Each structure stands twice: as C-alpha cells, then as structure tokens.
Amino acid sequence: MSDPFDPALDPLRSVRGLDGVAALGGLYVLTAVTVPVVPLVAGVGYLVEVLDAVARGDDHPGVFENVGRLARLTVGGTVISALYGGVPAVILAMTLYGASGLPGDAAQGTITGLAITLGSTASLFLAMAIAYALPAAWGLYAHSGRLRDALALGRLGPITRAPAYFVWTVTGWTVLIGGLAIGDALSVFVVGFFVAGYATVVTVGCWGRGLARTDAAPGG
C-alpha cells in the first residue's frame, strides 16, 4: 500500500537530497535562534521558492540558482506575511486598548472581561483563517510575481475551498506544530533545531502538494 504522504515528500528529497533538506532547515532555525529576525526574513524566500517548485511538480528545484528571484520572493513573501498577520494583531491590540479605557467598577469589569474575551476569540479565529489562506497567497505571488494576486479574494476563494488544498494545508500545519514541539523539547541538543527546520520544509512541501492538486491554483 502506497504512503499517501509520499508524493509531498518525493520532491523535497531532491532539494539537495533528504539529508540536505534537514541540514539546510536545521541551519536556518539554528541561525534564527542565534540572530533573531534577520535569518527569519531571509528564510521566507527559500520557503516560498520550495512551495512554488513543489506546486509546479518540479522534482529538481534549483532554489539557489537564481539569487535575484530568491531575494524578490523574500521581500514579497515577508510583506504578504506581515499584511496577513497584521490584521488579527491590530484587532487584538484595539480590543485591549479599548478595554483598558473602561472604568474599573465591578459592572464595567465584567464588560471589560467580556470585551477582551470576544476580541481575543475573534482574533484567534481570524488568525486561523489567515494561516489557512497564507499558502495560497504565497503560491499566487510566487507564480505571478505580483503582490496584488496574493490579496485577490477572487483568486484565493476557489483555491481555499478545494478539498485537496484543505487536506494538505491542514496536514502541513499539523506537521509544523508537531515538529516545532519536538524541536523545542530537544532544543538542549542541536538535533532539536534540525528537527524543527526539517518540519518547516516538509510543511511547505505539503502546502505545495495541495496547490498542485487544486485546479484553481497556479500549476494545479
């Protein structure tokens, strides 16, 4: 019986080989821990490129062959991530700011607590929706090179409603959460960073596989 996850893993094995994927991903996470922000931003272009390669069915993606494209994907992917992630963050900040300005008596305290609960819950669900749509946004941008495509609801809608996209996107996020949890547990050892890095690359591969199997997506 064939492994249902094998199609997502096969293209990743060609990105400098399976050991190379683990090494590059692990080095990326290790550097991100040592020098925050800068390597995280730089790694976005690499992840977007891998996603696009898997979505196109490219078994031998030359991730580092076009440095200019990698730099452009880094900038664009970072901007898209910031725009998407900024929405729930702003809602949560506005909720907390508004609640802090309410009077401190018992009745108002109840209202404040309710407002914070509703605002944080709305932010959580919105963050989940944005996390679900982010792979599609990355894929659209990587395919066309236009930031506006990553924000076009008319193009995002058909992709995110596809069953294949749902399965592989949720699978990818599950792999990432599990990999980061294991990596954190093993962070006292160097191998923990490599586990987290490898999980990150496999996650992007799952996202790319979902796009490849979605007719409405570029390369689908």
UniProtKB/TrEMBL annotation:
Keyword field contains Transferase: no
Tell me one Pfam family matched here: DUF4013
Kindly state which keywords UniProt assigns to this record, in alphabetical order. Answer: Membrane, Transmembrane, Transmembrane helix
| Keyword Secreted tagged | no
Where do transmembrane segments lie in this chain?
20-48, 79-99, 111-141, 162-182, 188-207
Q: Tell me what this protein is called.
A: DUF4013 domain-containing protein
